[in-house]
Amino acid sequence: MASKGKTWGWGIVWVLAGGWEIPALASEATPSWLMLYPQHPLYRQSVLEPTTAAPNPVIPTQKALPVPATFAPIPTRSASPGLPSATSPSRELAVAPTPLFIQPLPEPEAVSPSPTLLPGFTLTSPAGFGLNWGEVFVGVSGVSRSFSRDSDFDKADGSIPVVVGLGNGRTGLGLELTYNLISLTPSRFAANGNFDLKFHKMLDDRSSIALGVENFVNYGRDARETPVSPYAVASATWPLRPDRPENPMLLGLTLGVGAGRFSPREVLRSEGLGDIGVLAAVGLQVLPNLATIIDWSGQYLSAGVSYVPFQRLPFYLSVSATDLLESTRTGFRFSFGAGVGLRF
Predict the structure, then answer these.
(1) How are the residues of the chain apportioned to helix, strand and coil, as percentages rounded to the nearest 5?
(2) Domain 135-343 belongs to what topology?
(3) Domain ranges in the chain?
């Protein structure tokens, strides 16, 4: 009886010592009561020798799906200042891709060039170009006394022309009406005056023809003594340097015929129109706003310049020497003109 009890006692001790694996305990990975027995092999296997433990079972992974995102590494602060910060692949965040829309740059709007104010190409001869509807020109002109020895033109004088455009010479027929207030000297101020008339038609952007008559209506003694002067002219311009729009060096030519003051000889109103004379002018745009001109009015030769001081203000200046050959009774003298163009 005693041996039987002794056998059961050793069996219990052997079980407690871990010699026999109890099925209920085998299902537990690490029983909590083993922590009280460091000498137990399971304690040593699970705590003291973790490297000898069975590897974790490999969990099959699903097939990688395409990720429509780009991964941007998050920079981490470097431990040492001044060194470049490292990037940690484990701290990458998925950044949604930004769609890139490349739109064509809008075409720059066509900027029309600022209007270029051309100088004149005639001095005393009429031009084939004229004003159109809504255009007005107001100026002042003067002439010095004569420097010729045999001339009786010993006083300076001047006039104020006012030119109004009617019609349209580009699309139809243009009409230019001019009023000249003659005699600006204090003793004879506004004592004389007359009217000029000109029809003009542009053939293209650079050429035009005109028919006109000067002094067809007048008042005052001096104006009445001046003959009526009809004329027909044609004017054209050509760029000598078309590849340089900033200064094309336009060459302006005017050619025509006329009577009265355009006659080869001086005539008075009582003598009629006189002979038919040839008038011509040549102007060269040496600078964008300056032209040199040689002008033959049918009776005398003149030379001078036409100048536009401001590119955005239609203000014109001209200075010339008149009757260089002293072919008239007035003789050699200087003249000038200034005026401004307006558009309504």
Answers:
(1) 15, 40, 45
(2) Porin (2.40.160)
(3) 1-50, 135-343
